[in-house]
Amino acid sequence: MNPSKELLTNIANKSSTYLCSLMKNRYTKLYDILFNNIRFNRLNILLLGVNSDIDGWKTYFPNSSIYCSDTDQSILNSVVNVNPILLDKSDIKSLVDVFYIHYKTIKFDIIIDTGKEYFLTNWKVLNILYAKLTDGGIYIIENVLDFDQQVTCNSTMKKSGLVTLTDDTLPIFIARN
């Protein structure tokens, strides 16, 4: 099989990094469903938290510009052929400065937030970055935590009509612009 046409799940299975661990949570299968028909397009993709296999994402999206943010400069220094962004997403002022001043002209087709914060932090980040999605863009939060608060937020999000929530076996939140 041509590596550029491999499913993300197959790419992940060849890796021993974070992307491979996503397989255990079935994210890669879901991502293949969501992205397979657009993966060869020229896209702008933002990964919030670079604890993933950037090479895997670059293989899966060979024609895309990938922007990676993290709080750890050494992690950002280790990634190549991407646009690294040193950022603590819980610092709302820095988040606004980075995406509405430095990257003000860039819209993203896909934003994947690796989560790991409380859901309300992720909700605040979503509210800031949602306007940075292209029409039809997809915003994903992985590893949704703090389920008690999530229930309150989810009922609000469901009412908005923008959000699809998967069951609790895959702690993920997906919004489409």
Describe the secondary structure blueprint for this structure.
Layout: H1 8-13, H2 18-24, H3 27-35, E1 44-48, H4 54-60, E2 65-70, H5 73-77, E3 83-86, H6 92-102, E4 108-113, H7 119-129, E5 133-142, H8 147-160, E6 163-165, E7 172-176
Parallel strand pairs: 1-2, 1-4, 2-3, 4-5
Antiparallel strand pairs: 5-7, 6-7
Helix pairs in contact: 6-7
**What's the Cα radius of gyration?**
15 Å
The strands making up the biggest β-sheet line up spatially as: 3-2-1-4-5-7-6
Helix content: 25-40%
Largest sheet: 7 strands, mixed
Provide the CATH top-level class.
Alpha Beta
The appropriate CATH architecture is 3-Layer(aba) Sandwich
CATH superfamily: Vaccinia Virus protein VP39
Strand content: 15-25%
Order of helices and strands: HHHEHEHEHEHEHEE
What would the principal axes of the Cα set say about the shape?
globular
- Count of separate structural domains: 1
Quaternary structure type:
single chain
If you average the pLDDT, what whole number results?
76
Classify the secondary structure makeup into a structural class. Answer: alpha/beta
Q: Count of DSSP helices?
A: 8
Q: Examine the coordinates and then state which fold CATH places here, giving the name of the CATH topology.
A: Rossmann fold
